[in-house]
Amino acid sequence: MHTVVLGSSGVTAAETLAVARADARVELGAEAREALARARATIDALAEKPEPVYGVSTGFGALASRHIAPDLRARLQRNIVRSHAAGMGPRVEREVVRALMFLRLKTVCSGHTGVRPEVAQSMADLLNAGITPVVHEYGSLGCSGDLAPLSHCALTLMGEGDAEGPDGVVRPAGELLDAHGLKPVELREKEGLALLNGTDGMLGMLLMALDDLARLHTSADITAALSLEALLGTRKVLAPELQAVRPHPGQAASAANMLKVLANSRLTGHHQDEAPRVQDAYSVRCAPQVAGAGRDTLDHARTVAERELAAAVDNPVVLEDGRVESNGNFHGAPVAYVLDFLAIAAADLASIAERRTDRLLDKNRSHGLPPFLADDAGVDSGLMIAQYTQAALVSELKRLAVPASVDSIPSSAMQEDHVSMGWSAARKLRTAVANLTRVVAVELYAATRALEIRTADGGPRASDGGRAALDAVRAAGVLGAGPDRFLAPDLAAAETFVRDGSLVRAVEAAVGPLA
Protein backbone atom coordinates (compact mmCIF):
# COMPACT_ATOMS: atom_id res chain seq x y z
CA MET A 1 0.00 0.00 0.00
CA HIS A 2 1.22 3.51 -0.84
CA THR A 3 2.57 5.55 2.07
CA VAL A 4 2.42 9.34 2.35
CA VAL A 5 5.24 10.85 4.41
CA LEU A 6 4.31 14.22 5.91
CA GLY A 7 6.80 17.05 6.12
CA SER A 8 6.22 20.61 7.28
CA SER A 9 5.60 22.27 3.92
CA GLY A 10 2.21 20.98 2.83
CA VAL A 11 0.94 18.08 0.74
CA THR A 12 -0.25 17.51 -2.81
CA ALA A 13 -3.73 16.86 -4.13
CA ALA A 14 -2.62 13.38 -5.23
CA GLU A 15 -1.43 12.55 -1.71
CA THR A 16 -4.72 13.73 -0.23
CA LEU A 17 -6.74 11.63 -2.67
CA ALA A 18 -4.53 8.60 -2.00
CA VAL A 19 -5.31 8.81 1.73
CA ALA A 20 -8.98 9.72 1.30
CA ARG A 21 -9.94 7.34 -1.47
CA ALA A 22 -7.28 4.62 -1.53
CA ASP A 23 -6.52 4.26 2.20
CA ALA A 24 -2.83 5.14 1.78
CA ARG A 25 -0.84 4.99 5.02
CA VAL A 26 0.45 8.15 6.67
CA GLU A 27 3.81 8.64 8.35
CA LEU A 28 5.33 11.67 10.06
CA GLY A 29 8.69 12.57 8.56
CA ALA A 30 11.67 13.88 10.53
CA GLU A 31 11.02 17.42 9.26
CA ALA A 32 7.46 17.33 10.57
CA ARG A 33 8.54 15.99 13.96
CA GLU A 34 11.12 18.77 14.32
CA ALA A 35 8.58 21.45 13.39
CA LEU A 36 6.06 20.01 15.84
CA ALA A 37 8.55 19.94 18.72
CA ARG A 38 9.77 23.46 18.00
CA ALA A 39 6.27 24.97 17.96
CA ARG A 40 5.23 23.06 21.06
CA ALA A 41 8.16 24.47 22.99
CA THR A 42 6.85 27.93 22.19
CA ILE A 43 3.37 27.09 23.46
CA ASP A 44 4.73 25.52 26.65
CA ALA A 45 6.74 28.65 27.36
CA LEU A 46 3.72 30.89 26.84
CA ALA A 47 1.58 28.66 29.05
CA GLU A 48 3.87 29.41 31.98
CA LYS A 49 3.52 33.16 31.64
CA PRO A 50 0.85 35.19 33.45
CA GLU A 51 -0.19 37.13 30.32
CA PRO A 52 -3.29 35.71 28.59
CA VAL A 53 -2.77 34.15 25.13
CA TYR A 54 -5.80 33.27 23.01
CA GLY A 55 -6.36 29.53 22.85
CA VAL A 56 -3.62 28.84 25.38
CA SER A 57 -4.89 30.52 28.51
CA THR A 58 -8.22 32.09 27.49
CA GLY A 59 -11.71 31.03 26.53
CA PHE A 60 -12.80 30.90 22.89
CA GLY A 61 -14.75 33.07 20.47
CA ALA A 62 -16.96 35.53 22.31
CA LEU A 63 -15.64 34.07 25.61
CA ALA A 64 -12.02 34.94 24.86
CA SER A 65 -11.93 37.65 27.52
CA ARG A 66 -11.76 35.12 30.36
CA HIS A 67 -8.29 34.13 31.59
CA ILE A 68 -8.13 30.39 32.37
CA ALA A 69 -6.06 29.19 35.33
CA PRO A 70 -3.48 26.41 34.68
CA ASP A 71 -5.44 23.76 36.58
CA LEU A 72 -8.47 24.27 34.27
CA ARG A 73 -6.69 24.28 30.91
CA ALA A 74 -6.87 20.56 30.18
CA ARG A 75 -10.57 20.71 30.92
CA LEU A 76 -10.84 23.76 28.67
CA GLN A 77 -9.37 21.85 25.72
CA ARG A 78 -11.62 18.82 26.31
CA ASN A 79 -14.64 21.05 26.64
CA ILE A 80 -14.10 22.88 23.36
CA VAL A 81 -14.06 19.55 21.54
CA ARG A 82 -17.13 18.20 23.33
CA SER A 83 -19.19 21.37 22.99
CA HIS A 84 -18.24 21.96 19.36
CA ALA A 85 -19.04 18.38 18.32
CA ALA A 86 -22.60 19.53 17.70
CA GLY A 87 -23.24 18.28 14.17
CA MET A 88 -26.64 17.05 13.03
CA GLY A 89 -28.13 15.27 10.06
CA PRO A 90 -26.91 12.41 7.86
CA ARG A 91 -23.40 11.04 8.10
CA VAL A 92 -20.75 12.50 5.82
CA GLU A 93 -19.06 10.10 3.40
CA ARG A 94 -16.01 8.17 4.59
CA GLU A 95 -13.70 9.64 1.94
CA VAL A 96 -14.63 13.17 3.00
CA VAL A 97 -13.89 12.44 6.65
CA ARG A 98 -10.53 10.85 5.79
CA ALA A 99 -9.60 13.90 3.70
CA LEU A 100 -10.68 16.16 6.55
CA MET A 101 -8.51 14.27 9.06
CA PHE A 102 -5.49 14.09 6.76
CA LEU A 103 -5.57 17.78 5.84
CA ARG A 104 -5.88 18.76 9.48
CA LEU A 105 -2.86 16.58 10.23
CA LYS A 106 -1.03 18.30 7.37
CA THR A 107 -1.56 21.68 9.03
CA VAL A 108 -0.63 20.33 12.46
CA CYS A 109 2.67 19.05 10.99
CA SER A 110 3.49 22.52 9.62
CA GLY A 111 4.75 23.60 13.03
CA HIS A 112 2.39 26.58 13.15
CA THR A 113 -0.23 25.10 15.49
CA GLY A 114 1.69 24.15 18.63
CA VAL A 115 0.29 20.63 18.84
CA ARG A 116 2.55 18.04 20.47
CA PRO A 117 4.22 15.41 18.23
CA GLU A 118 2.43 12.59 20.07
CA VAL A 119 -0.96 14.08 19.22
CA ALA A 120 0.00 14.28 15.55
CA GLN A 121 1.12 10.66 15.71
CA SER A 122 -2.23 9.68 17.18
CA MET A 123 -3.97 11.39 14.25
CA ALA A 124 -1.86 9.37 11.81
CA ASP A 125 -2.53 6.18 13.78
CA LEU A 126 -6.28 6.76 13.54
CA LEU A 127 -6.08 7.09 9.75
CA ASN A 128 -3.84 4.03 9.42
CA ALA A 129 -6.20 1.95 11.55
CA GLY A 130 -9.07 2.75 9.19
CA ILE A 131 -11.12 4.31 11.99
CA THR A 132 -13.45 6.99 10.64
CA PRO A 133 -15.21 9.37 13.04
CA VAL A 134 -18.94 9.86 12.54
CA VAL A 135 -19.27 13.38 11.10
CA HIS A 136 -22.64 14.93 10.35
CA GLU A 137 -23.87 16.98 7.40
CA TYR A 138 -24.67 20.18 9.30
CA GLY A 139 -22.55 22.16 11.73
CA SER A 140 -19.99 24.15 9.74
CA LEU A 141 -20.37 27.78 8.69
CA GLY A 142 -17.02 27.71 6.90
CA CYS A 143 -15.41 30.23 9.24
CA SER A 144 -13.27 29.57 12.26
CA GLY A 145 -12.87 26.54 10.06
CA ASP A 146 -15.12 23.52 9.73
CA LEU A 147 -15.66 23.53 13.47
CA ALA A 148 -18.28 20.87 14.11
CA PRO A 149 -16.94 18.34 11.58
CA LEU A 150 -13.40 18.67 12.90
CA SER A 151 -14.68 18.49 16.47
CA HIS A 152 -16.24 15.11 15.82
CA CYS A 153 -12.85 13.92 14.54
CA ALA A 154 -11.07 15.27 17.62
CA LEU A 155 -13.70 13.64 19.82
CA THR A 156 -12.73 10.25 18.41
CA LEU A 157 -9.08 10.97 19.22
CA MET A 158 -10.19 11.49 22.81
CA GLY A 159 -11.97 8.13 22.76
CA GLU A 160 -15.43 9.66 22.85
CA GLY A 161 -18.39 9.71 20.49
CA ASP A 162 -18.95 7.21 17.68
CA ALA A 163 -16.75 6.08 14.81
CA GLU A 164 -16.80 3.55 12.00
CA GLY A 165 -14.28 0.73 12.06
CA PRO A 166 -12.50 -0.68 9.01
CA ASP A 167 -15.26 -3.29 8.86
CA GLY A 168 -17.85 -0.54 8.26
CA VAL A 169 -19.54 -1.03 11.64
CA VAL A 170 -20.19 2.04 13.80
CA ARG A 171 -19.13 1.55 17.42
CA PRO A 172 -18.20 3.73 20.40
CA ALA A 173 -14.86 5.37 19.63
CA GLY A 174 -13.28 4.17 22.86
CA GLU A 175 -13.98 0.54 21.95
CA LEU A 176 -12.47 0.99 18.49
CA LEU A 177 -9.33 2.64 19.84
CA ASP A 178 -8.88 -0.17 22.34
CA ALA A 179 -9.45 -2.84 19.69
CA HIS A 180 -6.61 -1.36 17.62
CA GLY A 181 -4.23 -0.82 20.50
CA LEU A 182 -4.62 2.96 20.46
CA LYS A 183 -4.86 5.17 23.53
CA PRO A 184 -7.17 8.18 23.87
CA VAL A 185 -5.41 11.53 23.61
CA GLU A 186 -5.22 13.84 26.64
CA LEU A 187 -5.29 17.34 25.17
CA ARG A 188 -3.17 20.16 26.57
CA GLU A 189 -2.96 23.94 26.01
CA LYS A 190 -4.15 25.06 22.56
CA GLU A 191 -4.48 21.53 21.19
CA GLY A 192 -8.26 21.31 21.28
CA LEU A 193 -8.53 24.58 19.41
CA ALA A 194 -5.80 23.62 16.93
CA LEU A 195 -7.63 20.41 15.99
CA LEU A 196 -10.82 22.30 15.11
CA ASN A 197 -9.80 25.54 13.47
CA GLY A 198 -9.29 24.77 9.77
CA THR A 199 -10.94 24.76 6.35
CA ASP A 200 -9.97 21.13 5.83
CA GLY A 201 -13.42 19.72 5.08
CA MET A 202 -14.23 22.15 2.31
CA LEU A 203 -10.71 21.80 0.89
CA GLY A 204 -10.92 18.01 0.89
CA MET A 205 -14.23 18.11 -0.96
CA LEU A 206 -12.79 20.63 -3.42
CA LEU A 207 -9.90 18.29 -4.22
CA MET A 208 -12.24 15.36 -4.81
CA ALA A 209 -14.55 17.48 -6.96
CA LEU A 210 -11.59 18.62 -9.07
CA ASP A 211 -10.56 15.00 -9.60
CA ASP A 212 -14.08 13.96 -10.56
CA LEU A 213 -14.80 16.99 -12.74
CA ALA A 214 -11.60 16.59 -14.73
CA ARG A 215 -12.73 13.10 -15.68
CA LEU A 216 -16.27 14.31 -16.37
CA HIS A 217 -15.10 17.07 -18.69
CA THR A 218 -13.19 14.52 -20.76
CA SER A 219 -16.24 12.24 -20.71
CA ALA A 220 -18.47 15.12 -21.83
CA ASP A 221 -16.12 15.89 -24.73
CA ILE A 222 -16.52 12.26 -25.79
CA THR A 223 -20.31 12.24 -25.55
CA ALA A 224 -20.52 15.60 -27.34
CA ALA A 225 -18.46 14.15 -30.19
CA LEU A 226 -20.67 11.06 -30.37
CA SER A 227 -23.80 13.23 -30.46
CA LEU A 228 -22.32 15.40 -33.19
CA GLU A 229 -21.54 12.27 -35.18
CA ALA A 230 -24.97 10.71 -34.64
CA LEU A 231 -26.59 13.98 -35.74
CA LEU A 232 -24.49 13.99 -38.95
CA GLY A 233 -22.90 17.25 -37.87
CA THR A 234 -19.73 18.81 -39.17
CA ARG A 235 -16.39 18.60 -37.38
CA LYS A 236 -14.98 21.55 -39.31
CA VAL A 237 -15.89 23.83 -36.38
CA LEU A 238 -13.38 21.89 -34.25
CA ALA A 239 -10.38 22.88 -36.36
CA PRO A 240 -7.41 24.15 -34.31
CA GLU A 241 -7.15 27.35 -36.33
CA LEU A 242 -10.69 28.30 -35.32
CA GLN A 243 -9.89 27.76 -31.64
CA ALA A 244 -6.74 29.88 -31.99
CA VAL A 245 -8.86 32.85 -33.04
CA ARG A 246 -10.28 32.83 -29.51
CA PRO A 247 -7.37 31.47 -27.49
CA HIS A 248 -8.96 30.05 -24.36
CA PRO A 249 -6.90 26.96 -23.42
CA GLY A 250 -9.87 24.93 -22.20
CA GLN A 251 -11.75 25.47 -25.46
CA ALA A 252 -8.75 24.31 -27.49
CA ALA A 253 -8.41 21.19 -25.32
CA SER A 254 -12.07 20.24 -25.67
CA ALA A 255 -12.09 20.78 -29.43
CA ALA A 256 -8.93 18.69 -29.78
CA ASN A 257 -10.53 15.90 -27.75
CA MET A 258 -13.61 15.90 -29.96
CA LEU A 259 -11.52 15.81 -33.12
CA LYS A 260 -9.57 12.81 -31.82
CA VAL A 261 -12.75 10.95 -30.97
CA LEU A 262 -14.21 11.64 -34.42
CA ALA A 263 -11.21 10.36 -36.38
CA ASN A 264 -12.15 8.30 -39.45
CA SER A 265 -15.88 8.92 -39.12
CA ARG A 266 -17.97 8.42 -42.25
CA LEU A 267 -21.00 10.03 -40.61
CA THR A 268 -19.79 13.57 -39.96
CA GLY A 269 -20.16 16.17 -42.65
CA HIS A 270 -23.45 14.87 -44.02
CA HIS A 271 -25.51 17.61 -42.46
CA GLN A 272 -26.66 18.84 -45.90
CA ASP A 273 -27.62 15.50 -47.42
CA GLU A 274 -31.15 14.91 -46.12
CA ALA A 275 -32.15 18.24 -44.56
CA PRO A 276 -29.82 21.01 -45.72
CA ARG A 277 -28.49 23.22 -42.94
CA VAL A 278 -25.66 25.69 -43.08
CA GLN A 279 -24.42 25.01 -39.55
CA ASP A 280 -25.20 22.87 -36.54
CA ALA A 281 -27.24 23.96 -33.52
CA TYR A 282 -25.47 25.71 -30.68
CA SER A 283 -25.51 22.67 -28.39
CA VAL A 284 -23.42 20.83 -30.98
CA ARG A 285 -21.39 23.64 -32.53
CA CYS A 286 -20.53 25.39 -29.26
CA ALA A 287 -19.69 22.29 -27.24
CA PRO A 288 -15.96 23.19 -26.97
CA GLN A 289 -16.74 26.74 -25.89
CA VAL A 290 -18.96 25.64 -22.99
CA ALA A 291 -16.91 22.63 -21.89
CA GLY A 292 -13.74 24.66 -22.37
CA ALA A 293 -14.94 27.42 -20.10
CA GLY A 294 -15.56 24.74 -17.49
CA ARG A 295 -12.02 23.45 -17.96
CA ASP A 296 -10.62 26.94 -17.40
CA THR A 297 -12.75 27.21 -14.26
CA LEU A 298 -11.18 23.96 -13.05
CA ASP A 299 -7.72 25.41 -13.63
CA HIS A 300 -8.55 28.46 -11.52
CA ALA A 301 -9.95 26.27 -8.75
CA ARG A 302 -6.79 24.12 -8.83
CA THR A 303 -4.69 27.22 -8.26
CA VAL A 304 -6.73 28.05 -5.15
CA ALA A 305 -6.53 24.46 -3.94
CA GLU A 306 -2.75 24.34 -4.38
CA ARG A 307 -2.36 27.50 -2.31
CA GLU A 308 -4.54 26.01 0.42
CA LEU A 309 -2.55 22.77 0.37
CA ALA A 310 0.59 24.80 1.09
CA ALA A 311 -1.14 26.78 3.85
CA ALA A 312 -1.30 26.32 7.61
CA VAL A 313 -4.78 27.43 8.64
CA ASP A 314 -5.12 27.96 12.39
CA ASN A 315 -5.80 30.72 14.91
CA PRO A 316 -3.65 31.73 16.63
CA VAL A 317 -0.57 30.59 14.70
CA VAL A 318 2.97 30.01 15.91
CA LEU A 319 5.33 32.05 13.73
CA GLU A 320 8.94 31.19 12.92
CA ASP A 321 10.22 33.94 15.23
CA GLY A 322 8.34 32.46 18.19
CA ARG A 323 5.42 34.89 18.21
CA VAL A 324 1.90 33.52 18.59
CA GLU A 325 -0.51 35.78 16.71
CA SER A 326 -4.24 35.86 16.13
CA ASN A 327 -5.35 36.08 12.51
CA GLY A 328 -8.27 35.55 10.14
CA ASN A 329 -6.78 32.86 7.89
CA PHE A 330 -9.50 30.41 8.91
CA HIS A 331 -12.07 32.28 6.82
CA GLY A 332 -13.15 29.99 4.01
CA ALA A 333 -13.94 32.61 1.36
CA PRO A 334 -11.17 31.63 -1.13
CA VAL A 335 -12.32 28.01 -1.16
CA ALA A 336 -16.04 28.80 -0.95
CA TYR A 337 -15.95 31.01 -4.04
CA VAL A 338 -14.39 28.38 -6.29
CA LEU A 339 -16.69 25.67 -4.94
CA ASP A 340 -19.63 27.81 -6.03
CA PHE A 341 -17.96 28.62 -9.35
CA LEU A 342 -17.52 24.92 -10.09
CA ALA A 343 -21.20 24.27 -9.36
CA ILE A 344 -22.10 26.88 -11.97
CA ALA A 345 -19.82 25.30 -14.56
CA ALA A 346 -21.17 21.82 -13.78
CA ALA A 347 -24.75 23.00 -14.25
CA ASP A 348 -23.99 24.53 -17.63
CA LEU A 349 -22.09 21.49 -18.88
CA ALA A 350 -25.09 19.35 -17.92
CA SER A 351 -27.48 21.79 -19.56
CA ILE A 352 -25.79 21.65 -22.95
CA ALA A 353 -25.49 17.85 -22.79
CA GLU A 354 -29.22 17.55 -22.13
CA ARG A 355 -29.97 19.74 -25.16
CA ARG A 356 -27.93 17.42 -27.38
CA THR A 357 -29.77 14.40 -26.00
CA ASP A 358 -33.11 16.05 -26.76
CA ARG A 359 -32.03 16.62 -30.37
CA LEU A 360 -31.12 12.95 -30.75
CA LEU A 361 -34.65 11.96 -29.65
CA ASP A 362 -36.66 14.51 -31.66
CA LYS A 363 -37.45 13.18 -35.16
CA ASN A 364 -37.85 16.77 -36.40
CA ARG A 365 -34.24 17.64 -35.50
CA SER A 366 -32.35 14.35 -35.54
CA HIS A 367 -31.94 14.10 -39.33
CA GLY A 368 -33.40 10.68 -39.93
CA LEU A 369 -33.23 8.95 -36.57
CA PRO A 370 -36.45 7.28 -35.33
CA PRO A 371 -38.56 9.17 -32.76
CA PHE A 372 -37.03 8.78 -29.30
CA LEU A 373 -34.67 6.21 -30.84
CA ALA A 374 -37.55 3.75 -30.39
CA ASP A 375 -37.69 0.34 -32.10
CA ASP A 376 -41.35 0.69 -33.12
CA ALA A 377 -42.33 4.25 -32.26
CA GLY A 378 -45.82 4.41 -30.79
CA VAL A 379 -45.70 0.86 -29.55
CA ASP A 380 -42.28 1.63 -28.02
CA SER A 381 -41.43 4.86 -26.21
CA GLY A 382 -37.68 4.41 -26.57
CA LEU A 383 -35.64 6.88 -24.52
CA MET A 384 -38.44 9.41 -24.02
CA ILE A 385 -38.40 9.20 -20.23
CA ALA A 386 -34.64 8.88 -19.99
CA GLN A 387 -34.60 12.46 -21.23
CA TYR A 388 -37.17 13.38 -18.57
CA THR A 389 -34.82 12.02 -15.94
CA GLN A 390 -31.95 13.94 -17.48
CA ALA A 391 -34.02 17.14 -17.53
CA ALA A 392 -34.92 16.68 -13.84
CA LEU A 393 -31.23 16.31 -13.00
CA VAL A 394 -30.35 19.44 -14.97
CA SER A 395 -33.08 21.39 -13.20
CA GLU A 396 -31.66 20.38 -9.83
CA LEU A 397 -28.15 21.28 -10.99
CA LYS A 398 -29.38 24.78 -11.76
CA ARG A 399 -30.72 25.10 -8.23
CA LEU A 400 -27.43 23.78 -6.84
CA ALA A 401 -25.62 26.49 -8.82
CA VAL A 402 -27.08 29.19 -6.57
CA PRO A 403 -24.02 30.30 -4.56
CA ALA A 404 -23.76 29.48 -0.88
CA SER A 405 -20.84 31.85 -0.31
CA VAL A 406 -22.99 35.00 -0.47
CA ASP A 407 -25.20 33.82 2.38
CA SER A 408 -23.30 34.82 5.51
CA ILE A 409 -25.09 34.50 8.86
CA PRO A 410 -23.71 35.89 12.14
CA SER A 411 -22.74 33.60 15.01
CA SER A 412 -20.98 33.51 18.41
CA ALA A 413 -22.76 36.54 19.86
CA MET A 414 -21.73 38.65 16.83
CA GLN A 415 -18.01 37.96 17.35
CA GLU A 416 -18.05 35.81 14.23
CA ASP A 417 -20.27 38.15 12.26
CA HIS A 418 -19.27 37.14 8.72
CA VAL A 419 -18.83 33.55 7.59
CA SER A 420 -18.08 31.84 4.27
CA MET A 421 -20.58 28.93 4.15
CA GLY A 422 -17.82 27.06 2.30
CA TRP A 423 -18.81 23.70 3.79
CA SER A 424 -22.31 24.16 2.40
CA ALA A 425 -20.86 25.11 -0.99
CA ALA A 426 -18.79 21.93 -0.93
CA ARG A 427 -21.70 19.71 0.07
CA LYS A 428 -23.92 20.96 -2.75
CA LEU A 429 -21.04 20.64 -5.23
CA ARG A 430 -20.75 16.94 -4.36
CA THR A 431 -24.42 16.53 -5.26
CA ALA A 432 -23.85 18.51 -8.45
CA VAL A 433 -20.94 16.28 -9.48
CA ALA A 434 -23.05 13.17 -8.94
CA ASN A 435 -25.89 14.63 -11.00
CA LEU A 436 -23.56 15.73 -13.80
CA THR A 437 -22.25 12.17 -13.98
CA ARG A 438 -25.80 10.93 -14.51
CA VAL A 439 -26.54 13.56 -17.17
CA VAL A 440 -23.41 12.61 -19.14
CA ALA A 441 -24.38 8.94 -18.78
CA VAL A 442 -27.80 9.59 -20.34
CA GLU A 443 -26.19 11.40 -23.28
CA LEU A 444 -23.78 8.51 -23.69
CA TYR A 445 -26.67 6.05 -23.66
CA ALA A 446 -28.60 8.02 -26.27
CA ALA A 447 -25.61 8.79 -28.51
CA THR A 448 -24.35 5.20 -28.61
CA ARG A 449 -27.86 3.93 -29.42
CA ALA A 450 -28.14 6.52 -32.19
CA LEU A 451 -24.75 5.49 -33.60
CA GLU A 452 -25.83 1.87 -33.46
CA ILE A 453 -28.93 2.72 -35.50
CA ARG A 454 -26.94 4.81 -38.01
CA THR A 455 -24.36 2.10 -38.63
CA ALA A 456 -26.71 -0.93 -38.64
CA ASP A 457 -27.05 -3.14 -41.73
CA GLY A 458 -23.93 -1.85 -43.47
CA GLY A 459 -24.47 1.82 -42.74
CA PRO A 460 -21.62 4.35 -42.75
CA ARG A 461 -18.66 3.57 -40.51
CA ALA A 462 -18.61 5.29 -37.13
CA SER A 463 -15.53 7.10 -35.85
CA ASP A 464 -12.73 5.30 -34.07
CA GLY A 465 -13.86 6.80 -30.77
CA GLY A 466 -17.50 6.10 -31.47
CA ARG A 467 -16.93 2.42 -32.20
CA ALA A 468 -14.70 2.06 -29.13
CA ALA A 469 -17.30 3.67 -26.89
CA LEU A 470 -20.11 1.59 -28.37
CA ASP A 471 -18.24 -1.70 -28.02
CA ALA A 472 -17.12 -0.94 -24.46
CA VAL A 473 -20.49 0.23 -23.20
CA ARG A 474 -22.15 -2.90 -24.59
CA ALA A 475 -19.46 -5.07 -22.97
CA ALA A 476 -20.22 -3.30 -19.70
CA GLY A 477 -23.79 -4.56 -19.79
CA VAL A 478 -25.53 -1.50 -21.23
CA LEU A 479 -27.93 -2.99 -23.78
CA GLY A 480 -28.41 -1.55 -27.24
CA ALA A 481 -31.29 -0.65 -29.52
CA GLY A 482 -34.42 -2.79 -29.52
CA PRO A 483 -37.92 -3.04 -28.08
CA ASP A 484 -38.71 -1.28 -24.82
CA ARG A 485 -37.43 -2.87 -21.63
CA PHE A 486 -36.85 -1.94 -17.98
CA LEU A 487 -34.57 1.05 -18.58
CA ALA A 488 -33.26 1.92 -15.10
CA PRO A 489 -30.63 -0.87 -14.99
CA ASP A 490 -29.17 0.28 -18.32
CA LEU A 491 -28.96 3.86 -17.11
CA ALA A 492 -27.35 2.76 -13.83
CA ALA A 493 -24.75 0.74 -15.74
CA ALA A 494 -24.05 3.72 -17.99
CA GLU A 495 -23.63 5.92 -14.91
CA THR A 496 -21.07 3.53 -13.43
CA PHE A 497 -19.30 3.35 -16.80
CA VAL A 498 -18.85 7.12 -16.81
CA ARG A 499 -18.14 7.56 -13.10
CA ASP A 500 -15.35 4.99 -12.82
CA GLY A 501 -13.52 6.28 -15.89
CA SER A 502 -14.31 3.29 -18.12
CA LEU A 503 -15.59 5.53 -20.92
CA VAL A 504 -12.41 7.60 -21.02
CA ARG A 505 -10.17 4.52 -20.86
CA ALA A 506 -12.04 2.74 -23.65
CA VAL A 507 -11.90 5.70 -26.02
CA GLU A 508 -8.27 6.55 -25.20
CA ALA A 509 -7.32 2.96 -26.05
CA ALA A 510 -8.61 3.62 -29.57
CA VAL A 511 -7.63 7.25 -30.23
CA GLY A 512 -4.78 8.00 -27.83
CA PRO A 513 -4.58 10.21 -24.73
CA LEU A 514 -7.26 12.86 -24.23
CA ALA A 515 -6.91 16.05 -22.23
UniProtKB/TrEMBL annotation:
There is a cross-link at residues 143-145 (5-imidazolinone (Ala-Gly)). GO terms for molecular function: histidine ammonia-lyase activity. SUPFAM superfamilies: L-aspartase-like. Keywords: Cytoplasm, Histidine metabolism, Lyase. It catalyses: L-histidine = trans-urocanate + NH4(+). Pfam families: Lyase_aromatic (PF00221). It is an enzyme of class 4 (lyase). The modification 2,3-didehydroalanine (Ser) is found at residue 144. Belongs to the PAL/histidase family. HAMAP family: His_ammonia_lyase (MF_00229). This is Histidine ammonia-lyase. It comes from Streptomyces evansiae. The lineage of its organism: Bacteria, Bacillati, Actinomycetota, Actinomycetes, Kitasatosporales.
